[in-house]
Amino acid sequence: MLDPGLETRLSAFDAGDLGPHAAALMDEMRRAVRSGLPLSALLLAATLVDVVANEEAGPAGFVDGVDFAYAGNKAALGWLRGRRNEILHHEGPTDGLMGESVAADWHWRDAGKGISALLDYLEDLEGY
After folding, report:
1. What per-residue confidence (pLDDT) applies to 28?
2. What whole-number distance in Å separates Cα of residue 39 and Cα of residue 78?
3. Disulfide engineering: 111 pairs with which of 29, 38, 53, 89, CB 3.0-4.6 Å?
4. If you average pLDDT over every residue of the chain, what do you get?
């Protein structure tokens, strides 16, 4: 499960400034968390970063492009993209996807890290 503080933060995030595509994915990510699907939540978090950066009906339509360059923690967002790619594009053994007995714990840890990176990014964009 997600850290309760992060789950509260995710639930409290106002998706009103997101475009309809991003808002639908945010709702889906919240449902994935509630349904106990950490890998799905992680993949949706990574997808949301890209959608928000490109969907003209959301922040991409009114936030200056330079501001996107400074939004969020670049190391955390880079990790999120890399982890997403490890999950979706099998190129070899990947931690948490090899039947380890503690994999579920690792999946939730990774989902929390990814969702936190996404929320930091979105909250930075709200400031512009």
Report:
1. 98
2. 17
3. 38
4. 95
User: How far is the CA of 41 from the CAs of 54, 63, 84, 120, in angstroms?
Assistant: 20, 26, 10, 16
Q: Residue 7: which residues within 8 A CB-CB, separation 6 or more? A: 1, 33
Query: Stretch 70-97: mean pLDDT, rounded?
Result: 93
CA 6 – CA 113 distance, rounded (Å): 10
Q: What's the pTM value of the predicted model, to 2 decimals?
A: 0.93
pLDDT of residue 127: 78
The full DSSP string for 60-74 is GGTS-HHHHHHSS-H
CA pseudo-torsion sign 52, 21, 40, 9: positive
Euclidean distance between CA atoms 19 and 23, whole angstroms: 6
